[in-house]
Task: inverse folding
């Protein structure tokens, strides 16, 4: 059921790869809620994914951009405003990648050049997006910018390795740029700390199935799905959350407030 929450709003959605991705589901629901937007991803990710299929379904234009490239981002924001016929009201940053995780490197054996790449792609790109947008004055007053995070920014999940630091940096950037953008343009900036989600990127983390099941058993509501997260993103893009900014919002079925659950006790208790 649609509520017209984004009627008349224009946006940019980063990171839609395939039907499993949160950004894909955000795009579908944003369209249902009345938004117009452009889709963007790095050229390599676009070749691997199905973004053109999504663009056709949403009647949206695709503008390729490497989010680590300021030049690409400048082109993206310029063209997006031309395509949409005005400034942007919302941005979704759904970008994360660790070469160390992809190559199976343990935390005690990280390749530091790859670590820097992890930080650039997964965190610094968020700052670059907002810096370019601010310099172009591309975001309308009371706009909303959201990035996707994970609780490994605050807690230890061994197989998440350097992505843990990337998410911590991402959340810090959201707070600091949220202050700056709020004072300048009333633009709000938030991160959503989502449950482990069976996306293409998520399932690439070692031991994913184990901590997915663990989180599901720990959370009184179970794990939040990709579609649940997309719905939450839509509320943050809407005018219903105009005074919410600089927050890391937990969207995890209650996981972050739990110490232990009966399901976990029953799993480890000797029979």
Result:
């Amino acid at each position: 059921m649609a509520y017209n929450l984004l009627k008349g709003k224009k946006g940019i959605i980063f990171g839609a790869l395939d039907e499993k991705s949160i950004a894909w589901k955000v795009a579908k629901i944003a369209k249902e809620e009345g938004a117009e937007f452009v889709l963007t991803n790095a050229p390599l990710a676009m070749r691997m994914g199905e973004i053109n299929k999504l663009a056709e379904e949403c009647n949206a234009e695709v503008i390729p951009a490497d989010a680590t490239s300021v030049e690409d981002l400048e082109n993206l924001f310029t063209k997006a405003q031309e395509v949409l016929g005005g400034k942007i009201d919302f941005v979704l940053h759904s970008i994360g990648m660790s070469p160390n995780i992809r190559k199976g490197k343990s935390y005690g054996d990280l390749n530091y050049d790859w670590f820097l790449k992890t930080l650039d792609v997964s965190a610094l790109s968020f700052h670059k997006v907002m810096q370019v947008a601010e310099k172009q004055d591309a975001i309308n007053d009371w706009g909303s910018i959201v990035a996707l995070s994970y609780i490994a920014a605050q807690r230890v999940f061994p197989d998440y390795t350097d992505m843990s630091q990337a998410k911590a940096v991402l959340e810090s950037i959201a707070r600091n740029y949220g202050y700056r953008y709020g004072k300048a343009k009333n633009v709000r900036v938030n991160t959503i700390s989502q449950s482990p989600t069976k996306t293409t990127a998520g399932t690439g983390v070692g031991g994913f199935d184990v901590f997915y099941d663990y989180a599901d058993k720990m959370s009184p509501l179970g794990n939040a799905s990709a579609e649940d997260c997309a719905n939450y993103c839509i509320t943050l893009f809407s005018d219903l959350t105009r005074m919410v900014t600089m927050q890391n919002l937990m969207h995890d079925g209650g996981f972050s407030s739990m110490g232990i659950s009966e399901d976990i006790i029953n799993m480890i208790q000797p029979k």
User: Anything to note?
Assistant: The mean pLDDT is 95.
